[in-house]
Amino acid sequence: MLLINLFVPSLRRRRLVAGVFSRVFLRAAGLPFSVDGLNLLPQVPCVVVANHASYIDGLVAAAALPPDFAFVIKKEMVRVPLAGLLLRRLGSQFVERFNRHRGAVDARRVLKTAAGGQSMVFFPEGTFTEIRQVGKFLGGAFTTAARSDMPVVAMAIHGTRAVLPPGGLGVHRMPIRVEILEVLTAGDARQRSRELIARAVGEPLAP
């Protein structure tokens, strides 16, 4: 994917390539994959928020969504060989999680990108653990949506925790499904999206 995308000039086409390769990977790995509710995606720029339970969630989201989305990713990924270069070629936005000043600078850059009409994908839990639950949602996705006047789309990713568990070493061949749940206004989306996603994937809300 990286080798091809080094020579593809258009960002949208690079994302198309990434989506195709992601779907081919899931098929080659013997993982049944399906997407429900794509027709619910707005025809305007939006912010998608999804649960985060496995290392493959980003790949699964790329396989499911049209090539119009930039992914907001923890800045540590920039330093991962090859992966960091590929993610930059796909227009990903990197955000510092541990340094408040740098994090604020990154947040302003993300906001500027969204204000320019770029749809975005966030995993608002920020990380995942071995505990089967939907963690608290950080505010970045919802602030970005509110200030950019974008709707928020709640998206549930089913099955990735079982396929590649946190801390696990092997891939289990089980179905993966992505479900677009509901389009929300930014004002009430933070708690509402978390509740919708937790109910859909059948996991409790973290206290």
List keywords for this structure.
single chain; Glycerol-3-phosphate (1)-acyltransferase; 207 residues; 18% strand; alpha/beta
Topology as H/E string?
A: HHEEHEHEHEHEHEH
Global outline = globular
Query: Stretches where pLDDT falls below 50 for ≥5 residues?
Result: none
Strand content: 15-25%
Number of strands: 7
Query: What structural category characterises the helix and strand content?
Result: alpha/beta
Summarize the amount of helix as a percent range.
Answer: 25-40%
CATH class: Alpha Beta
Mean pLDDT: 93
- The structural domain count equals 1
Largest sheet: 7 strands, mixed
CATH superfamily: Glycerol-3-phosphate (1)-acyltransferase
Number of helices: 8
Instruction: Please give the CATH architecture.
Output: 3-Layer(aba) Sandwich
